[in-house]
From TrEMBL:
Entry superkingdom: Bacteria
Signal peptide (from-to): 1-26
Fe/B12 periplasmic-binding domain span: 76-338
Cellular-component GO terms for this entry: outer membrane-bounded periplasmic space
Record-linked InterPro entries: ABC_transptr_periplasmic_BD, Bact_iron-sidero_bind
Broad class of where this protein is predominantly found: other
Region spans: Disordered: 24-68
Localization per Swiss-Prot or TrEMBL: Cell envelope
CDD domains (UniProt xref): FhuD
Entry's Gene Ontology BP terms: iron coordination entity transport
Protein known as: Iron complex transport system substrate-binding protein
Length: 338
């Protein structure tokens, strides 16, 4: 229905003393409390979604591409955007086709691990090109009854997709993951299931915040040509906000991420660093990266003291889906409460 009730916002608003050291600039100020306002939307925007209740078809969904009528429960869903395979499976829907990211598996490993009950169906998911350039002929050949994509990447091809099958566009980008999950679920007439998932997630994030203490957390992603820290308005940043976790001063910005030069690696420091290296599943492979070989990286207090944690690139920094969010929260909990 219209005018959804927002997900419970969770933040630990306590002043904390002590934070990560920054050897290049000296001792930084104490970590500030997490901001009271959520960094991203927690409900379907007003005027979007379907007026029909869950389980009801036909249903007409207003979304970021326009208005789409879905006449019956979708049986052949094609997903194009990052995190949508994750979101559909979380709701019990296995797509028949999916687009893939650059140099990424069609179905990410963390998704396969999370849903072993769908192993045979996931092995049969058909590729439909890349997320940046979906193959319209491959999509049409699957005879889908619903296509899911996001406006950030697919607005221009929305008319072409809609000519193939009913198409729903969510907004896209990681900080919008809750809103997008709810809108996707509404398209499948399962918005209540998605809301229950998010409420449970918020409750567990609150528990982490009550126990985690004053440690600051840093989020870093390394690829062949970029090294980035992620801000509050990012997928991982929003999850940290949900738990009331503190960020180092250099990462309290509102953008998704900031690039670091090799000389700026001190800005990645915190009490805990959660970092990924594209294509590296183990520390030995990650160590081959130029960033990890940089003496400035090795000299960061968190790295020196064994408080830098290598994480899976897909769920942490690529696939902004609900099961990815649960995995990130689980790994934050394991690291901070160990």
């Amino acid at each position: 229905m219209f005018g959804r009730v927002p997900v419970v916002a969770v933040a630990a608003l306590v002043a904390l003393s002590g934070c990560a050291s920054s050897p290049a600039v000296g001792e930084p100020p104490a970590a500030a409390p997490a901001p009271a306002e959520a960094p991203g939307p927690t409900s379907i925007p007003d005027g979007m979604g379907a007026a029909e209740p869950d389980g009801t078809f036909p249903r007409t969904v207003t979304h970021f591409g326009g208005t789409t009528t879905i006449t019956a429960p979708p049986q052949r869903v094609v997903v194009i955007a990052t995190g949508q395979t994750d979101a559909a499976l979380t709701l019990g829907v296995v797509p028949v086709g999916a687009a893939s990211g650059d140099d990424a598996d069609l179905v990410p490993r963390y998704v396969r691990d999370a849903f072993p009950q769908y192993a045979d169906q996931l092995a049969a998911v058909a590729p439909v090109g890349s997320r940046q350039s979906p193959n319209l002929e491959a999509i049409a050949a699957l005879q889908p009854d619903l296509v899911l994509a996001n406006a950030a990447a697919s607005q221009d091809i929305y008319p072409a997709l809609s000519a193939i099958a009913p198409t729903v566009l969510v907004e896209g980008t990681g900080v919008n993951w809750k809103q997008d999950f709810l809108l996707l679920a509404d398209s499948l007439a399962r918005q209540g299931t998605a809301q229950a998932f998010l409420d449970d997630f918020a409750a567990d994030a609150a528990k982490l915040g009550e126990s985690a203490g004053p440690e600051t957390v840093s989020f870093l992603r390394v690829t062949a040509d970029r090294t980035r820290v992620f801000g509050v308005a990012s997928f991982a940043g929003f999850i940290a906000w949900d738990a009331g976790l503190q960020r180092p001063p250099a990462q309290r910005f509102d953008a998704t991420s900031k690039d670091l030069s090799p000389e700026e690696l001190q800005l990645a420091d915190a009490d805990r660093i959660f970092y990924s290296v594209q294509g590296a599943a183990a520390e030995a492979a990650a160590a081959e990266s130029a960033t990890m070989a940089n003496p400035l990286w090795k000299d960061l207090p968190a790295v020196r003291d064994g408080r830098a944690v290598l994480v899976d690139d897909d769920p942490w920094y690529l696939n902004a889906g609900p099961t990815a969010a649960r995995l990130v929260l689980t790994e934050l909990t394991a690291a901070l409460l160990s």
